[in-house]
Amino acid sequence: MDDEFMYKLRGTPSAKFVDSLRQRLGEHESEGFEAPGSESVLEDSAASGFSRTSKSTRFVMIGAAVAATLVLFAFPAVRASAQAFLNLFRVVNFTAVPVNVDRLKQLGPSGLDVRALIGQQIEVLADPGPPQTVLTLGDAAQAAGIPVKLPSVVAPGLVIVRTEVEGEHEARVIGDTAKLTDVLNALGITDVRPPAGLDGQVATVRVPPIVRTVYANGSQEVAFIQARSPEVTLPASVDLAALGEIGLRIVGFDADQAHTLAQTIDWRGTLIVPVPAGASSFRQVDIHGNRGLFVESTERSDLKAVLWSENGLVYGMTGGLSDALMLQMAESVQ
Amino acid sequence: MSVDKAVSKVWPWSAEAARIPVRDADDWDDLYRAQLPRVYNFFRYRVGCTADVEDLTATTFEKAWRARHRYRHDIAAFSTWLLTIARRVAIDHFRTRCKSAPLEEAAAVPSPDRTPEQDAGLRSDVDRLAELLAKLSPREREILALKYGADMTNRDIARITGLSESNVGTIVHRTVKDLRARW
What we know:
Chain A has helices spanning 15-29, 41-51, 55-73, 80-86, 101-105, 114-118, 137-144, 177-186, 240-250, 255-264, 323-331, and strands spanning 93-99, 122-126, 132-134, 159-166, 169-174, 202-207, 210-217, 220-228, 231-233, 270-276, 280-287, 290-297, 304-310, 313-319. By secondary structure, chain A is an alpha+beta fold. Helix content of chain B is 70%, strand content 0%. Mean pLDDT of chain B is 73; it is low at 1-25 and 99-110.
């Protein structure tokens, strides 16, 4: 396509403008970041919530939240609602999103319950039941339909105690604008509304079989999980960014932050990993040249996880090894 | 230092790490000088008014600077994040102004490197293109501003606008073809 003429409008900012703006920004440098009061609802309300909660309650609550989160993103046994949330994407990347636990508690005892978020019209199409223990990796590969891999480097003392395969799950989710609006109202979010046309839209969620290999050394356990990427089929008219923005608001992001994040996240390829704000830390890691995510509880040393995807497969390792050992094991998967 | 390295050093991705005050002015300078022309030209295509272009560019960088702790390089390239802010600044601009900028102001800034004849010719091309762009729908104009002003790929434009990559490609191709016919 001949589009050379399209570049005719490009110009160069004048040196005077460049220098004056740089100088103006320099004056802001002494101001530092935005004042804490203007930061995300997430951080503010988390802090204030903790101050109103007894220490023991807080510990239990955060501990439970951390455990629930780690279990959630470690692809556990069937939890239809959680899976519906997690698998609205074909996983290419992982992104951690700090979640305000106090805020989610406003949604009721079920916490992060997708049934409450997107309606109760979740129809389970395939439920394989509890994971089945297999005797060999060959059996696991055959059952899951994937080339099963293992880490070649294993922490001293760890041995494989079992390998299990969880069968394929499939569910159909039907959008419910009224229910989602109720959730927003319950959280006092009035400036965003569900995108038009969501009602009656059908999403089909498919989670391929998951192979879980469990290592143990005494009471210490490390689990290595592998599966094909979950897939979701959505009508093209569904505005994922708009839905994502609502999701970010629900978990505690302020309006600006939610909008900016929603517009920059690749919703079709990024698995959002909710982590409890203030009780966990996360960072990007590189596994075989793929962008992965390392998450750990700041309150319990045995809750860590590495997640990455490679060639259409999703891998996860959870346990309480040192950061270096966790990453070394992950790097050695072949 | 590469832009990416400067970004990761100056605009840390985690909220915790981002609380560390920025010290390295050289990194920020690299970043600023690398990205300023993209934002500036985005507004030239999007708004088409020299005075407003500078104001809007400045507003974008000031917003970005204040919100720099929110930038997450695990989610998007810095330029994508910056252009997301610029896009919102443009939307706010149109919301408050409710009018297009005068086309004649969109002419190229005279350059000491060009002869008066060259300046006149360039100004003519600039005027013509600005006039054609002004007749486009807001969505078409925005996409072309991201493509030709900010130098973004169709994939990045898709991420910012929420359209599919193929849809962006189709809109760019169709719109440029139409403009070309009228050029």
